[in-house]
Design a protein that fits this description.
InterPro entries: Cyclic-di-GMP_PDE-like (IPR050706), EAL_dom (IPR001633), EAL_sf (IPR035919). The protein is α/β, with parallel strands linked by helices and about 150 residues long. The chain is about 30% helix and about 10% strand.
Length: about 150
């Protein structure tokens, strides 16, 4: 879910996330920092990951404002018990900066090259995401849960 889509309808977003989390899904708030970045709404949205917008990674090693924004988003995420992902981690230098800040995961060519998706209908088992030398990403798709045909959620 993108930050902008959540802000546009927080109540519906919360209901959607709550319902799917009950079914075992995990959620990432994508492009955080690209919209209004009101941290207050994060308290009411039970996401598992905050993906820090890639625009902050540009010149992060030389731009103190970009670095401070990443540090701030990372710290708030960790205080909430949420894992953080640095988007657009395209170089070794960006990976090093994200590691020094304490960002949990990196997404981009510096972490791993794009890979083809598994065959249709064959989900990647939890914890087996193919990764490059700097990727600390673990599979975040939950293992399939048995469906109870008598359940009202079917």
């Amino acid at each position: 879910m993108t930050e902008t889509s959540v802000i546009n309808n927080l109540r519906r977003s919360r209901q959607f996330v709550d319902h799917l989390k009950e079914l075992g899904f995990y959620f990432a708030l994508d492009d955080f920092g690209s919209g209004t970045s009101a941290f207050g709404y994060l308290k009411n949205l039970p996401v598992d990951y905050i993906k820090i917008d890639g625009s902050f990674m540009q010149e992060i090693e030389n731009d103190s404002l970009n670095r401070t924004m990443v540090e701030m988003i990372n710290r708030v995420g960790h205080l909430m018990g949420v894992k953080t992902v640095g988007e657009s981690a395209e170089t070794e230098q960006i990976i090093a900066e994200l590691e020094s800040i304490g960002v949990d995961f990196a997404q981009g060519y510096g972490a791993a090259m794009p890979l083809p998706l598994p065959a249709a209908g064959q989900p990647t088992p939890r914890g087996t995401t193919p990764a490059g030398p700097h990727s600390r990403v673990q599979g975040v798709r939950p293992a399939p849960r048995p469906v109870d045909p008598d359940s009202r959620d079917c």
